[in-house]
From TrEMBL:
<feature type="domain" description="PurM-like C-terminal">
    <location>
        <begin position="152"/>
        <end position="302"/>
    </location>
</feature>
<dbReference type="InterPro" id="IPR036921">
    <property type="entry name" value="PurM-like_N_sf"/>
</dbReference>
<protein>
    <submittedName>
        <fullName>AIR synthase family protein</fullName>
    </submittedName>
</protein>
<dbReference type="InterPro" id="IPR016188">
    <property type="entry name" value="PurM-like_N"/>
</dbReference>
<dbReference type="InterPro" id="IPR036676">
    <property type="entry name" value="PurM-like_C_sf"/>
</dbReference>
<feature type="domain" description="PurM-like N-terminal">
    <location>
        <begin position="33"/>
        <end position="137"/>
    </location>
</feature>
<dbReference type="Pfam" id="PF00586">
    <property type="entry name" value="AIRS"/>
</dbReference>
<comment type="similarity">
    <text>Belongs to the HypE family.</text>
</comment>
<dbReference type="Pfam" id="PF02769">
    <property type="entry name" value="AIRS_C"/>
</dbReference>
<dbReference type="InterPro" id="IPR010918">
    <property type="entry name" value="PurM-like_C_dom"/>
</dbReference>
<dbReference type="InterPro" id="IPR011854">
    <property type="entry name" value="HypE"/>
</dbReference>
Length: 330
């Protein structure tokens, strides 16, 4: 099998086959595109999500915190605690582990979340450090937003710039090979993208406003996230490549390696569907968060309109462009 997420058909089959117990106190269950589970505890809901870091080495601790907290934020709930598991190869030093944990500590302080526990182990089972985290959030009963809540006619909004995480990873891991297309200033700017990959603020803002669905844009890029929202909601979408917020730095990198920015990992951007996208964009901008309307939720299939007006049906990305890039530069 190739590196990356399992394809959606295989994953859906595994999820459905493993779900033998259904408890009444589980309000939202895992599924395609549904990154959080929500468990009812009387007047409050407990929101849980888990994810590993496997595609990045630089800033791995920072990314581990944010990608998991972003999942909780996509339900409109504030994260409160994190559990951290580190599996490291035998050539790992104690300084390596301390460096990762210091990154995790710094980001949890910024987000005001507590490190609740976890596990650290040196093992022959991995050839590089794997960080897997579980984040817990707490919200008022029935307030959590589901990925599957999109409605026909909803505006589709994305926050900030797409590909912040992917661009940051590529620039850090392949700096020597991109010096011919980026200036020193652009390289520095791209490395700074890691500072903006949290979507906790926009998730909480949108949750308070009341939106129909949210999904943080991770592996598979914006097209993967759109497909997951549509699949979970039994609907389609129509979006426009020309409306996608992509920096010139990201465009240069993607052109160099012939990869599609719309299929590149994009932590740092939230995908939101709502009846009034203009109102949401205005509210987010008042909070200092850029946002763009890229299309609408529809019936039928997912469609991407290119800059020439030609429509193409979107199929779920087989894997993230980051893994495609890794094969190209090996």
């Amino acid at each position: 099998m190739k590196a990356g997420k399992l394809n959606w058909d295989d994953l859906k089959s595994i999820i459905e086959d493993s779900r033998q117990v259904r408890r009444e106190d589980v309000r939202i269950r895992s599924g395609i595109g549904e990154d959080c589970s929500v468990v009812s505890f009387g007047d409050y809901d407990c929101v849980l999500s888990t994810d590993p870091i496997t595609g990045a080495e630089t800033n791995a601790g920072r990314l581990a915190v944010h990608i998991n907290c972003n999942d909780i934020a996509s339900s409109g709930i504030e994260p409160l605690g994190i559990l951290v598991t580190i599996l490291a190869p035998e050539n790992t030093s104690i300084e390596d582990i301390k460096k990762v944990m210091n990154e995790i500590k710094e980001e949890t302080v910024k987000l005001n979340i507590e490190i609740l526990g976890g596990h650290t182990e040196i093992t022959k089972a991995v050839n590089k450090m794997i960080i897997s985290c579980t984040v817990i959030g707490k919200g008022e009963k029935n307030r959590a937003v589901a990925t599957s809540g999109a409605n026909e006619g909803d505006d589709i909004v994305v926050t900030k710039l797409l590909c912040l995480e992917g661009t940051s990873i590529i620039v850090n891991d392949y700096e020597n090979s991109i010096k011919d297309i980026l200036t020193e200033e652009e390289i520095t700017e791209a490395k700074e993208y890691v500072k903006y990959i949290s979507v906790v603020k926009e998730g909480i803002v949108a949750g308070k406003l009341g939106v129909n669905s949210m999904h943080d844009i991770t592996e598979g890029g914006v097209l993967g996230a759109l497909w997951e929202v549509a699949e979970a909601s039994n609907l389609g979408f129509k979006v426009y490549r020309g409306k996608m917020p992509i920096s010139s730095i990201t465009s240069k990198i993607c052109d160099k390696y012939s990869i599609d920015p719309l299929r590149l990992i994009s932590s740092g951007s939230m995908l939101i569907t709502t009846r009034d996208g203009s109102k949401l964009v205005k509210l987010l901008q008042e909070e200092g968060i850029k946002a763009s309307i890229i299309g609408k939720i529809t019936k039928g299939k997912g469609v991407l309109v290119n800059t020439s007006g030609v429509e193409e049906v979107v199929i779920p990305p087989e894997r993230d462009e980051l893994f495609v890039l890794e094969e190209k530069v090996e």
